[in-house]
Amino acid sequence: MLQQALDASDIIGRWEYDVPNDRVYADALVALVFNINPAETEAGTSLGTFLAGVHPEDRERFIREIKLSTETGLCCAFEYRVCSADGVVRWVLDRGRIALDEAGRPQRGSGVLIDITQSRLGDHARGTDASCQAQHPLERAAEHCLAAREAIHEYPEPLLHRMSDMLLLEVGRALSKLTDERRRGAMN
Fold it and tell me: How far apart are CA 31 and CA 162, in angstroms?
């Protein structure tokens, strides 16, 4: 069932991170991809719980990328493997941003998770991190969408919340296609 849901769309879902309280909130598919009970991510669970679902060889890089984003407030975009609830190892593209307060302390983060397993099949390149120095317009748009979503969610208007979420998901889909095209181009 998890595979059918993932096959329906490259987008797995959204996540939000309350940094000071170490609470990560995520969609049900995100939870299952990390082998976490969806009720836990709905209520909020620690980043450590998510870390346990990251492939052991990718955990150090995962921690390093999250730490860099919490220190700088810059977007992070990186690929890593997860050990899903159905026992399948999947590759994901995680793109998000941690907002800092006026004193430079990390506060809240949000982002999207995209399944790139199919595009990684046969790809032996390891440790490939996407740069936050966004060159492509879609990469810049994703960063702006994350910032806009964060601001819109401060305003109590459910329709705007849904619309900003939909825009972020569509930009994520387009980014997934772009990633596939770049990978195919690199292979030729």
Answer: 20
